[in-house]
What we know:
- This protein has one domain (2-341): Methylamine Dehydrogenase, Chain H (7 Propeller), CATH 2.130.10.10.
- The mean pLDDT is 97.
- A hairpin with a 4-residue loop joins β14 (156-160) and β15.
- Helices cover 0% and strands 58% of the residues.
- The protein is mainly beta.
Amino acid sequence: MKVLIGGYTKKTSKGIYELPFIGEDNGAKLGKAENIISVGGPTYFQKDGDLIFTINNAGDEGGISVLKLGEHGSSEVDRYLTPGASPAYVGIDREKKLIYTANYHTAVLSVFHYNPSGNLELVDQVTHKAETLGPRPEQTDGPHPHFFDETPSGNLVSCDLGNDTVDFYRLENGKLEHLAQYKNETGFGTRHIVFSKDGNYFYVVGELSSKINVVKFNEDTWDFENIATYKTIPEDFTEHNGAAALYISKDGKYVYNSNRGHNSITVFKVNDDHTLSLVQRISTFGDFPRDFNWDADQKYVVVANQNTDNATLYIRNGDNGTLTPIQTEIPVPEGTRVLFTK
């Protein structure tokens, strides 16, 4: 098992790094980070076999690149770049061979098809409009989609930080059709979303509000019911914080999010009625944790701290959801994306 970490390339990072996973249980640790892919600003990426689909910030152009991993490094298979900023998020459907990107700066959502070799074909794009912009400085300049991926029923969903909205789409006959919209509270800063195991609820995190909103919904009728909202940071924390990544355990019992500023991961238990109960807030032992992730068994969790160029490894208790740090101060530069791989 290995861990891939990529992020910004503004200081010393060269792209995507691979860290070997050594040992097991409380004796587990990550080895030295090795740069395996040189690419500009791989702040988010996905993997399918030996193919890496990564954000590529190529100076005056931005987009995604497809790289094939080999025994002696990597080679670029294809790229799709356009003038301006690169996307913020990359989603994937490995069975349908589809890639989804959300561009925070240009407000463009894109769908690509890829063949087994990794060659890309643009399927369709839509651009979010400035319809319900929030009052915060990060919102007043326009829509900012930060997430674009699949729903439990195979539709598509985006999270728009500028508009405070969750938007649902259908991809049919190569065209994106807007189906429905859920509006978060003004200034929420809608960023990432996860779904309950039964597909009847979603949990959406607000970057600007540092809150998680629990919503009951019906993916046939598009009825929404606001259930509850929870702070991801302590009420008495007054410094700047931006909530970032959001994950739910595969058994549907625990929700996790990272907090950039409070520099923590918050763990919530999902109650029988789908409300949340705070279980734990634990330090990330570094500054500005954007992404974190777990292995296939969800036994180990790794978080990357962007500003302090380090990562932290935890062991996860599947019975109560808690995280216990087993290795801190793991050197890796400018990390914003974490992915376990074989």
